[in-house]
């Protein structure tokens, strides 16, 4: 399932990584913050929206980095280069992420920054939309978002161009063993 | 057709940017769409989508009420109205009460339909479209030319010009750079706006959810950043169950933009919180504007199965030539013609309905399974009922209904055409008729029509008999095709009968909305063709075959002559097209071809009615191969040749460029012969090749096959 998901997601321009554990995922995030030179100057920050993955992680283990904040506001999101959030499901046949984004902070970090980094439990990749629709409940999830690759347009001369109003890059980190994670 | 409309067409077909962009797009779309649907059973999927949508259309009122109940239980405010003006008043009231100064919008055809933007602007509210294409046309002061790609008619140079003015900086026509400019210009507008207005692709009654399908990410910002969100949704977007969303999402992006899924799909069920913890105001406007009336119409209710993918535009040979603006300001293309007739008024569709050439391309790709050409014919019929037939047409059709007089006039035309005839063609006609021969020669009317020649062909007496239905073109312009057909059937041991009372199949009248005339033609032919009591009724003109096998019953039924239906069905059951019959005879070993000769390459042109209504396309190719030809496929082999019966006479300015494309595709193959199964296509393409001067023989299959049959 992961391979199919990866192929489709990369096919629409997403970057897909896979790690074994939550610890590795946190390491990946640290590395990514370094690589993208996240810092405190305007337009260079990062925001991490509330994520169930971090529940129960000792304070000392949560990545710290200049310019990284867990306190999401629209102004900070508008200034951020990187937004980090968690996806609930993956869809293999289209390479999509499905995110429960009822809380506005989830949308702010995944729509305003230039890069969106999404954490996804590998075991939550489902075959197709139909399976996802069986799992989702609009009565409790008020804003369900399917995200498939970065923001795109072809409105000028049908030429595909990436990054109109949403992120220019979508980075997906699949985590095989989500210890203490809330999903299945 | 009025002059202004003709002028619009003229400007469009002569706009090289427009036709170039649309032409390239439609060619790429076909390939990409097929790729997007790989591994998916499209017929099964569209059955499901059409089922979900038609079930909803049958119950719009109840679904709207259920939606309202469920969305309001979640905290949304739902406003239902049938009146477009009330939609505008409601939104203005919401805006004024909340002190809204600025609005950001994501794409919504429903708001285009009611001209919301100018109304808000007039009332002092600033409105920014944020979909890139919509923003471009807003800056240009234009209307969308395509419901999915609103600015497809503009070049990057034109966009650079518009953006340069907006940002007061000289910008190069560099697309990624222009997209960046849009991002940077619109971002502050998103952050400052007090209200976001969106459309909605689906509304789910069961859960009170709305679904937004986008690529750019603007709808996510429109529904997240401002404290008020107003969604304007036509009631035809309602579906009953949440589970119905999935199949629509399978079809919509694939059909619209050849994507497996768009970048973003948002499913919003009730208001969420604003960032400061206050509840967002969510208003959902369910707009009817004649949709319920449409749902009650036995013919037009199927138009509510539309999911607004725009694929009918993308495959339309007319759309890719003239673009959207010729069709009007809002909904364009095939489905747009139908929606304009209803949401605006029937009268508004008077000119644009005439743009449809009835090729049926759209019926093959519509994910809602809407028979768009048939609905356009229905518009024609209703226009004729409402306004009467134009005087000249009425005169012509009254002649067509009088077989003796009609055939007499065709014979007279053989003499009258003489002065303009060179060989087998009429190359130039004088004065106002000249445009008929613009880019295409017309066939000269034969000295001796088929009906006269048939008397001299001695028929064998066989147990198996076939009635030959010639149709006007074979009878009076191409009798040699009829002669070939008779010879072919005789060789298979079939006796051919030719009832002389047979007359025009009624297609010209039908396609002009004159159903009464067509019904009379149908009745006359049924009587004539069934009297002979043969095993088959065979025709070598697909349009005639479709008339006999499909249209007669429908036409007779729609004018209330139901007493004819059993006989119409009997005739339909006996009707067969030539290629299907010959293929059967070859398979049964009753006809076989001479062997051992290589006849070289032939390319085959699929006629619209044969390919898409009768679904016959393998048979003629197989027969040509067996006869010793090597079939070399041309590009877009099943694209209309631009003939369309009287279409080529009414709209030569559109027909001619379509023909030119066809001629180029034929010549490109290098084949010296192009075969087809329709005398109308022969007339169009042979006439085109004659004026073009290319050394390509244009033949009806029957003429190529007959000489190759073993004695």
UniProtKB/TrEMBL annotation, chain A:
Pfam families: LUD_dom. This is LUD domain-containing protein. InterPro entries: FTHF_cligase-like_sf, LUD_dom, NagB/RpiA_transferase-like. It comes from the Bacteria. Residues 3-173 form the LUD domain. SUPFAM superfamilies: NagB/RpiA/CoA transferase-like. The lineage of its organism: Bacteria, Pseudomonadati, Thermodesulfobacteriota, Desulfuromonadia, Geobacterales.
TrEMBL record, chain B:
Keywords: 4Fe-4S, Electron transport, Iron, Iron-sulfur, Metal-binding, Repeat, Transport. It comes from Geomonas silvestris. Residues 296-324, 346-375 form the 4Fe-4S ferredoxin-type domain. InterPro entries: 4Fe4S_Fe-S-bd (IPR017896), 4Fe4S_Fe_S_CS (IPR017900), Cys_rich_dom (IPR004017), FTHF_cligase-like_sf (IPR024185), Helical_ferredxn (IPR009051), LUD_dom (IPR003741), LutB/LldF (IPR004452), NagB/RpiA_transferase-like (IPR037171). NCBIfam families: quin_L_LdhH. This is (Fe-S)-binding protein. The keyword Signal does not apply. One of its GO terms (molecular function) is 4 iron, 4 sulfur cluster binding. The lineage of its organism: Bacteria, Pseudomonadati, Thermodesulfobacteriota, Desulfuromonadia, Geobacterales. Pfam families: CCG, Fer4_8, LUD_dom. One of its GO terms (biological process) is lactate metabolic process. Coiled coil: none annotated.
